[in-house]
Amino acid sequence: MTVVISCGEPAGIGPEVAAKAWAALKDEVSLLWIGDPAHLPAGTPWLAATPEDAPVVSRRALPVLPRPMTGPLTHGTPNPDHAHGVIKAIAEGVALTQTGRATAICTAPISKKALADGAGFGFPGHTEYLAHLAGDVPVVMMLACEGLRVVPVTIHIPLADVSAALTPALLETTIRITAAALSRDFGIKSPRLAVAGLNPHAGEGGKMGQQEITMISPLLDRLRAEGLDLAGPLPADTMFHAAARARYDAAVAMYHDQALIPIKTIDFAGGVNITLGLPFVRTSPDHGTAFDIAGRGIADPASMIAAIRMAARMAAARQE
Q1: Which of 16, 76, 97, 175 lies at a C-alpha separation of 20 to 30 Å from 82?
Q2: What does the alpha-carbon distance between residue 90 and residue 97 come to, in Å, rounded to a whole number?
Q3: How many Å is the Cα radius of gyration of the chain?
Q4: What is the CATH number of the domain that holds 254?
Q5: Which residues pair with 77 in a beta bridge?
Q6: For 7-17, what is each residue's pLDDT tens digit?
Q7: Cα torsion angle, 150, 152, 158, 161, sign
Q8: Domain of 156?
Q9: How many distinct structural domains can be found in the chain?
Q10: Within a domain: residue 274?
């Protein structure tokens, strides 16, 4: 059971939290890091590996697929010369999972601007690039911690654009992918989904909006008739207290902040970003490059550790 870690943005905290995660998990999970060893924190023990060596198990040193990158490293300031190497590390990690040499990939944070500036990276982020590498499959973003799993239907768009983007087809695809992933990746035989409304009080019978009546409820009724266990549309402001969370396995929210505010309130440091719908397991820490603290040795590895553990558990569930 090997989880491969792509290096992410070298000028950020990715190499640091990967090294700290290996130190914490070396007796628990087999890890393989792809990147330039010169970007790891000074003093990190590492050993060189090749793709043919995987899986590699070492408790003495972090197994590394060395991929040297041109140009100097300045913490907090991305080097455009590193962009192609960062992208290749992601692609190679995916290839290792697809060939079975690794069981999952955990991606360290990237700087989308740095990749666009240095390599013309045309994808909005990791998720879209991974979907492309998998054959342009439809995917869904899940954020998860020990107490909550949330899925936003619309993601990185202005709030003013959410209503137009929220179509029956998009909502149905999101629900189906989420339900299937809960069964395949989390071992939940009969997953229960709670679906939020778009408007305050889930529209309150049409007084605060019509989308619940005209679009969300009819779709949920149709999917329930197929056997899906769906609650909703529910008022989002009453979905996330402890008693409510006990009644479902994942919450489907209509837009970014509706989903991410509760999970980041419940477990800010330990949240995990998961891409559902891929033919391989992918997780990521739920934080960015943190340029402001990069290179100072103070980055918290909790989210990376949680992401690696989540990847290993999901991969094991797929093999059962």
Answers
A1: 97
A2: 11
A3: 20
A4: 3.40.718.10
A5: 74
A6: 999 999 999 99
A7: negative
A8: 147-266
A9: 2
A10: no
Mark whether 181 and 154 lie in a shared domain: yes
Asked if 121 and 156 sit in the same domain, the reply is no
Tokens of 185: 């990746």
Identity of the residue numbered 92:
E
Provide the token pair at 180: 């299937």
Q: What is the pTM of this model?
A: 0.93
- Side chain identity at 162, as an amino acid letter? V
Residue 166 in domain: yes
Measured distance CA(66)–CA(137) in Å, rounded: 30
Q: How confident is the model at residue 58 (pLDDT cuts 50, 70, 90)?
A: low
Beta strand pairing call for 2-6 and 104-107: parallel
Say whether both 92 and 200 belong to one domain: no
Please tell me the total number of residues recorded for the chain in this structure: 320
Amino acid, single-letter form, for residue 48: A
Residue 303 token pair: 């989210």
Residue 46 lies in a domain: yes
CA distance 209 to 214: 10
Long-range CB pairs of 132-136 (<8 Å, 24+ gap) are 133/90, 133/91, 133/94, 134/94, 134/278, 134/279, 134/280
Residue 153: both structure tokens together: 């239907």
Instruction: Inform me whether the pLDDT recorded for 199 exceeds 70.
Output: yes
- Nearest in space to 23 (alpha carbons), one of 220, 297, 270: 297
Q: For residue 298, what are its two tokens?
A: 């103070």
User: Which is it for strands 272-276 and 140-145: parallel, antiparallel or unpaired?
Assistant: antiparallel
CA–CA distance, 24 with 305 (Å, rounded to integer): 8
Residue 204 in any domain: the answer is yes
- Average pLDDT value for residue range 117-142: 94
Scanning the structure block, which residue is given the tokens 């023990």?
45
Distance, C-alpha 186 to centroid of its chain? 15
Strand ranges (E), 174-255: 192-196, 229-234, 250-253
Q: Are residues 262 and 292 in the same domain?
A: no
Report d(CA 15, CA 78) in Å as an integer: 13
